[in-house]
Amino acid sequence: MNEKIQLLRNPDIEPTDKVIAAGLGQANKTYVKFVDELKQYDIDLMQWRYYNDGNAWLTKGEYKWTTPRGANKVKPIFWLSIWEGFFKITFFFASSIQAGLLDLPISKDAKESIKNAKPMGKTMRFLPIVLDIKTDKQLDDVYALAEFRKTKVK
What we know:
By secondary structure, the chain is an alpha+beta fold. It has one domain (about 15-150): Alpha-Beta Complex (Aspartate Aminotransferase, domain 1), CATH 3.90.1150. It has helices at about 15-25, 30-35, 100, 110-115, 140-150; strands at about 45, 50, 55-65, 70-85, 85-95, 125-135. Strands 1, 2, 3, 4, 5 and 6 form a six-stranded antiparallel beta sheet that branches. The longest helix has 13 residues, at about 140-150. The radius of gyration is 16 Å and the shape is globular. The model has no long low-confidence stretch (mean pLDDT about 95).
């Protein structure tokens, strides 16, 4: 049985490039490519932070823009965590737009993740869309979902 093991659980060991590469193994090339390409989508990867509620180091991708009146806005697009052999990208979407997500030009696997997502929250229902990224070809799904999320921001 292939058990998924989340890494970066020790608050005293910061996630350096070397630590991340050791955990990701072959998926590190995809991770490096992903981090490099985020700028093309106007998404900044924030500093890693240790979250006590999840007992792990996480980072998030943020979209920043300026309104016509000059106000600076920031919106989290996704959360990223490191697992043994892959990295996990988690998006949170309003459950009311599930059909719109399924219309995106994404892989069958990504559409299955969307179909199987269980709504969370009591008053504001949202869908956690989780993608386990191991190869470059999966990045297209991440970018399509990120662009969709950005359009639902403004």
